[in-house]
Amino acid sequence: MRSFFKDGSVVLFQGDSVTDCGRDRTQHEGLGDGYPQKIASIWRTLFGEGVTFLNRGVSGDTTAMMLARYEQDVRALQPDFISILIGINDTWRRYDSNTPTSEETFEKNYRTFLENIRRDLPKTKILMIEPFLLPSDPAKAVFREDLDPKLIRVRKLAAEFADYFLPMDGFLNAQAAAGERGACDISQDGVHPVSYGHSLIAHYWLKELQIL
């Protein structure tokens, strides 16, 4: 266990609904009910109140939408550390609204977002979390043909830009296959974690930074 963040640090969570998780947008420091809240709660229990945790995840966002929010939801907040989990909606929209995002466009959007951070906030540490899909809903099995090539792009970008990387698709699917609880205990629809699933994400996140 170590105190990874210094007092006064700003930690920003960025992404889609998995990160948003019902956060109160009227509250500057509203964290929602998911893994950002769990991470912040554990941190504060261990080390006190010296770090500011912010959540700017937006339900339904794709990489293009997250990129469009960069100025107000990243640069203006001047985070010392940013955690990013994005990508499942770039796949999902292909199947529910016939608006696919190509691998190339996906990578371009994500790359531009990361390049902006490195340009404007060169001291900011970046943690990337790959999007994930669990086999809880058989109807979503077809998503794999679109998601898997995008996971390869995320891993490529992480090697270029990330200080820390969580291969969460692998982690959660391995847990579902080998653990006492199965895929539906982590996410009932394969995408949105239940409380236990968010606890797993928080666990892997804190372990990656050697906080736990």
What are the key terms here?
single chain; 212 residues; alpha/beta; 5-stranded parallel sheet; 10 helices; 11% strand
What does this structure look like?
There is one protein chain. This protein is an alpha/beta fold. 48% of the residues lie in helices and 11% in strands. It contains ten helices and five strands; from the N terminus they run βααβααβααβαβααα. Strands 2-1-3-4-5 form a five-stranded parallel beta sheet, with helices on both faces. Helix 7 (144-161) links the parallel strand 4 and strand 5. Helix 2 (35-47) crosses helix 10 (195-208). The protein is globular. The relative contact order is 0.16. The mean pLDDT is 97.
Based on secondary structure, the structural category is alpha/beta
Beta-strand fraction estimate: 5-15%
Using the CA coordinates, give the radius of gyration. 16 Å
Counting DSSP H or I runs of 4 or more residues, the number of helices is 10
Helix content: 40-55%
N-to-C SSE string, H for helix and E for strand: EHHEHHEHHEHEHHH
Number of strands: 5
What's the oligomerization state?
A: single chain
Strand order, main sheet: write it out. Answer: 2-1-3-4-5
Spatial shape? globular
Main sheet?
5 strands, parallel
